[in-house]
Amino acid sequence: MTAGEKIAKLRKEQNLTQEQFAEILKVSRQSVSKWERDDAYPDTEKLIRISKLFDCSLDYLLKDELEQMDVNLEEAKNDAEFDKMRAAVLTYLSFPPIFGWIVGIVSLKYQNSHMRNKTQIGLTIGGMLFSLICTSLMIAGAVLGL
To answer: Which among 72, 77, 25, 15 is positioned nearest to 47, based on CA atoms?
Structure first.
């Protein structure tokens, strides 16, 4: 329901003609007619007087449809849930690359000083490179908003 439709509805509920309503607000009947057709809107002072006269909020007069507001709230809740899930997944995904680097560095230090096995060192470096790729993808995803 538009603001004009609401004004017309409230006026009719009070059994006021456009002319009587116009006299109360000290405007012309044509102004009331334009408001009710949504060709024009009352100024702020008039809106306040209308809300007092009909004992309704300015919110009620100015907002289009309550159902639309409910849909927007539902969409906002769904978006918030999705954002919460996405944050959890990104947080979870951020640990393996960091963990991989820590384990890789510790492993390389141990292997260099104790074992000196080239195959194991190569695998460790490969794992660290894989962690670097994962970290880069994660950062790129965060920057691009994916």
So the answer is: 25
